[in-house]
Write a structure and sequence with these properties.
With 657 residues, the chain is an alpha+beta fold. 72% of the residues lie in helices and 11% in strands. The chain has two domains: 236 residues, PAS domain (Beta-Lactamase, 2-Layer Sandwich), CATH 3.30.450.20; 285 residues, Methyl-accepting chemotaxis protein (Helix Hairpins, Orthogonal Bundle), CATH 1.10.287. The strands form two sheets. Strands 1, 2, 3, 4, 5 and 6 form a six-stranded antiparallel β-sheet that branches.
């Protein structure tokens, strides 16, 4: 099986490499051959087109020489203006005999006379107006060729060669000949291009002059895919013609401007290129056979020693460590065999040492089992003790947590008391300030009250004086009233005396009357003044009574102010005492706050330590449990180790040292 596998692994890649190389070489050779064949065939076709162009030029040149001979003929020149065309027809006849390609010969004089051979001239349109006549007269030194057209007499396609006739430096007419297109077709059909190639000729109007398909003769070639390219001077291209890939080589005839083209099917070149595939295939087959033989030989050189190594390995697998191979080679296989023998020797030594180590492991595992059982019991006791300590630590942590919460509540209450104390202190300060302001205002009020009392006394004195003055004024008014009464009596007496005196006492009577009126008015005014004074005295008496009552009230007010001053003084003294006491309270609260902070910090530290202790205890307990579990596992592993040692001893005993 190994032999077949190694042979396959050596033979298959080697053959695949040869096959792939052969395929690549064949493909490259085929492509190169195809390319070379196409290039050579294209060059050959292009050369054939040049040869065909030269042949066409020779044909056209020969016929152009006949036209030139016509134009240079003395007979035609001398008889160009003659009445009889016989001499010209005779000349045409001679040339027709010399050149069978000429279908018709013409001479058109400048006075529109026409001479034709072999068909006589018939009344037609004015030939001097035709394009070819006009073209020939423009350059009398050249022969011009027309594109194909259908001859009316023969109904065949022809081309016309024309040249002007000069006589004494003057153009006297134009001579021309008709050449059948079939002659040109025959000329080009003789050209062979490959096995499937053919030639094409296209005139200046783009119509086919030569084509293997006679149905296309005279038809337009401008719609062909290659037409645009062949309008250039010359070249080669690959295009589709009638659905087939073909190579087209083309050139342009300088004499007429017609396009010559030769085309060959691309498949013809590919068929020629496939010829190289057969020798390549034969060479590839021979190479494969040789490669297979070499591969078999090489594979046997490898597989035979490999089989020896395989058999020796089977012996070792079955427990025979004394197996070895004897391969005396100086290549990699020889090194492999030597390495195998060395490995076998080392394995014998290793298994022998493993047998000794197995015995030691068995003894050590038994000792480990005993120690593990003792350690497991100790670890179990430590785990139980640590669990009890952990439970106590957890309970202590809970109590410390409750103490910390109570301390926090106490701290909040102390903070609240401190805040209230500060607010009371602030209110006491404001109360003290208000008390001092009240004392000051009461002092001012006391001073104002004393001033009011003094002013009241002065007012009473002034009112009394006013009352006395009013009485004096009343006496004066009474006196004036008496005087007014007396004046009135005197005025009456004066009036009486004036009346007695008659006319002489009339002026005095008037004065006496006026005095009487004044006395009456004075009496009336004095009555009013007396009434006013009486009212004023009454008001003054009332005012004196009211002022006396006000004085009594002011006196009472002064006493009340005095008492208020004493009260404010007492309040101020009490407030100052309260402020001092409150200051002591706040100071005590501050000290409590400081002690509270210390208490909280200590409680926090104690709680943290307790929690760490509880956590550490739990970790120790967990470690103890883990150690106990590890010891149990160690005990189990020791048992397994003893079992493995026993198994190893059994396995080692299978080998032969």
């Amino acid at each position: 099986m190994i032999n077949k596998s190694l042979q396959r692994q050596i033979l298959v890649p080697f053959i695949l490499l040869i096959v792939m190389t052969g395929v690549v070489v064949s493909g490259v050779s085929y492509m190169f051959s195809k390319k070379t064949t196409i290039e050579n065939s294209s060059e050959n076709t292009s050369e054939r087109m040049h040869d065909l162009d030269e042949t066409l030029n020779g044909f056209l040149r020969d016929n152009a020489n006949f036209v030139s001979a016509y134009a240079d003929s003395a007979t035609i020149k001398l008889h160009a203006k003659g009445d009889s065309p016989d001499y010209i027809i005779s000349k045409f006849e001679d040339y027709h005999l010399a050149n069978e390609a000429i279908m018709n010969s013409y001479f058109i004089s400048d006075d529109k006379e026409v001479v034709m051979y072999p068909i006589p001239a018939s009344p037609v349109d004015d030939m001097t107006l035709t394009p070819w006549y006009q073209q020939a007269t423009k350059d009398p030194t050249k022969v011009f060729w027309t594109d194909p057209f259908i001859d009316e007499a023969t109904d065949r396609p022809v081309v016309k060669a024309v040249k002007a006739v000069e006589y004494s430096g003057k153009i006297v007419g134009v001579t021309a000949i008709d050449i059948a297109v079939n002659d040109i077709l025959t000329l080009m059909q003789d050209v062979k291009i490959g096995d499937t190639g053919y030639a094409l000729l296209i005139d200046n109007s783009g119509n086919y002059m030569v084509h293997p398909d006679t149905k296309k003769l005279g038809k337009s070639a401008t719609q062909e895919s290659f037409y645009k390219d062949i309008t250039k001077k010359e070249g080669t291209l690959t295009t589709k013609i009638s659905g087939e890939e073909r190579v087209v080589s083309y050139t342009k005839n300088d004499t007429t401007g017609w396009k010559l083209a030769g085309t060959v099917a691309l498949s013809e070149f590919e068929e020629k290129a496939t010829v190289i595939l057969l020798p390549i295939g034969i060479a590839l087959l021979v190479t494969l056979i040789v490669a297979a033989i070499i591969s078999v030989f090489v594979s046997r050189r490898i597989t035979v020693p490999v089989n020896q190594l395989k058999n020796a390995m089977h012996e070792i697998r079955n427990g025979n460590l004394q197996a070895s191979v004897s391969i005396q080679r100086k290549d990699e296989i020889g090194e492999l065999a030597a390495s195998f023998d060395d490995m076998s020797n080392q394995m014998r030594t290793l298994i022998r040492e493993m047998a000794q180590i197995t015995d030691h492991v068995t003894d050590a595992s038994q000792t480990v089992v005993a120690s593990a059982e003792e350690n497991s019991a100790s670890a179990q006791e430590v785990s139980t003790t640590m669990q009890q300590i952990a439970a106590g630590s957890s309970h202590q942590a809970e109590l410390m947590d409750q103490n910390a919460k109570a301390a926090n509540v106490l701290a909040e209450r102390i903070g609240t008391v401190h805040a209230h104390g500060e607010r009371i202190e602030e209110a006491t300060k404001q109360m003290n300030e208000q008390s001092l302001n009240g004392v000051k205002k009461v002092s001012v009020l006391k001073e104002k009250s004393l001033m009011t009392t003094e002013m009241t006394r002065e007012m009473i004195s002034s009112i009394k004086k006013l009352d006395e003055t009013s009485g004096s004024v009343q006496q004066i008014v009474l006196t004036i009233s008496d005087i007014a009464n007396q004046t009135n009596l005197l005025a009456l007496n004066a009036a009486i005396e004036a009346a007695r005196a008659g006319e002489s006492g009339r002026g005095f009577a008037v004065v006496a009357d006026e005095v009487r009126k004044l006395a009456e008015q004075t009496e009336l005014s004095l009555k009013d003044i007396s009434a006013l004074i009486t009212d004023m005295q009454q008001v003054t008496e009332n005012t004196v009574g009211q002022v006396q009552e006000a004085a009594a009230l002011i006196l009472s007010q002064s006493e009340a102010v005095e008492e208020t001053e004493q009260s404010f003084t007492a309040i101020s003294t009490a407030v100052k005492g309260n402020a001092a006491a409150l200051k002591d309270v706040i100071q005590s609260v501050d000290e409590m706050t400081m002690q509270k902070d210390v208490l909280l910090e200590n409680a926090s530290h104690i709680l943290a330590i307790t929690q760490e202790t509880a956590a550490g205890t739990e970790e120790v307990s967990a470690s103890a449990e883990q150690q106990s579990a590890s010891m149990e596992q160690l005990n189990h592993l020791a048992d397994q180790l003893e079992q493995y040692a026993e198994q190893m001893r059994n396995h080692v005993q299978r080998f032969t040292f």
